[in-house]
Design brief:
Layout lengths: L2 E3 L5 E3 L8 E3 L3 E5 L2 E5 L4 E2 L6 H6 L4 H16 L5 H14 L4 H25 L8 E3 L7 E4 L12
Parallel strand pairs: 5-8
Antiparallel strand pairs: 1-4, 2-3, 3-6, 4-5, 7-8
């Protein structure tokens, strides 16, 4: 899996979703293999659901922020209809941003323990937001899939 980030996430604290949540204030784009993913403004993240106990052991580190935001969005939209593809993404994306092996392994173990329930809940509750992927291109002749959220209204919020 090849991961390329096109932007840095720009967020602000969003306590309406919880004490450790942040809302995206500018679109965030990244590429997974040949898929161009655009996370829309107002999407909120809790940085891959790293709980308080885990954050004491391993605080949110800059080498996982882009990977965590991307992973949250991929879970949200059911990327490739595969939890494993989303979990492989975060591992590879953390590597791209220079996260140490132990940090990547801890995240992988955390996802193995707690990721399934979140994946299942998102598949039940978020299908109304998923838009059929549309073809796009970053370079002439290169097929791309641009995945976005359709008809998102801030008042509806994300689950």
């Amino acid at each position: 899996m090849k991961v390329v980030f096109h932007d840095m996430p720009v967020t602000r604290v969003d306590p309406s979703h919880g004490a450790r949540c942040f809302e995206l204030v500018a679109p965030f784009r990244f590429q997974v293999d040949h898929d161009l993913i655009e996370v829309p403004v107002a999407f909120w993240t809790d940085w891959a659901s790293v709980g308080l106990a885990a954050s004491i052991i391993s605080p949110i580190h800059h080498t996982i922020c882009r990977a965590a935001l991307g992973h949250d969005f991929l879970y949200f939209v059911g990327y490739r209809d595969s939890q494993r593809a989303c979990d492989d993404f975060i591992y590879e994306a953390m590597s791209v941003d220079g996260a140490m092996l132990w940090r990547r392994v801890v995240v992988r173990i955390g996802l193995a323990i707690g990721g399934k329930s979140t994946w299942d809940r998102y598949r039940r509750e978020n299908t109304k937001w998923v838009q059929t992927p549309s073809l796009n291109s970053l370079r002439e002749g290169q097929p791309m899939t641009k995945l976005t959220i359709n008809n998102f209204r801030k008042s509806d919020g994300f689950v």
